[in-house]
Amino acid sequence: MSSLPPATTATILGRGVRGRCPHCGKGTLFDGYLTVAESCRNCGHALAGHDSGDGPAVFAIFILGFVVVGLAGVVEYMFSPPLWLHAVLWLPLTLAGTLVLLRPLKGIAVALQYRYRSLEEPERPGGT
Fold it and tell me: How far apart are CA 67 and CA 93, in angstroms?
């Protein structure tokens, strides 16, 4: 490991949002769209042990559900379009929003794990 000065939590979260290595901020966090890299290509920091689980998907559902349902309600109240038009409007918006949100949310989850959980810790009973 390189001897980098410690980064603030805000800096580490910013690196996660941008898909950068939370340790050095220069290497990429992902191999592909959502696959976390085994290690940073720049500093060699091990990234494979960080598992975000379903957290990013849950937050994306909450965010998109609030936005899409709110917008659909406003459109329904103001214009009363037919149901097929709702499907044409909201299905592509939901899909696009999911693709836009998942990667930064997963980066944040990995960055938080980097900041607050050591990979060298032994696994405790119950996964905590």
Answer: 10
Name the stretches of the chain with pLDDT < 70: 1-3, 118-128
Return d(Cα 87, Cα 85) in angstroms, integer. Answer: 5
How open is the CA angle 54-21-99, to the nearest 5 degrees?
A: 45
Helix then strand then coil, in percent of the chain rounded to 5, is 55, 5, 40
Q: CA torsion 99→100→102→108, rounded to 10°?
A: 160
Separation CA 51–CA 112 (nearest Å): 11
Predicted structure pTM score: 0.86
* Long-range Cβ contacts of 32-35 (<8 Å, 24+ apart): 33/103, 34/102, 34/103, 34/106
Q: In this predicted structure, what is the pLDDT of residue 4?
A: 76
Polymer length of the chain: 128
Task: State in Å, rounded, how far the first CA of the chain is from the last one.
Answer: 26
The whole-number pLDDT of residue 3 equals: 67
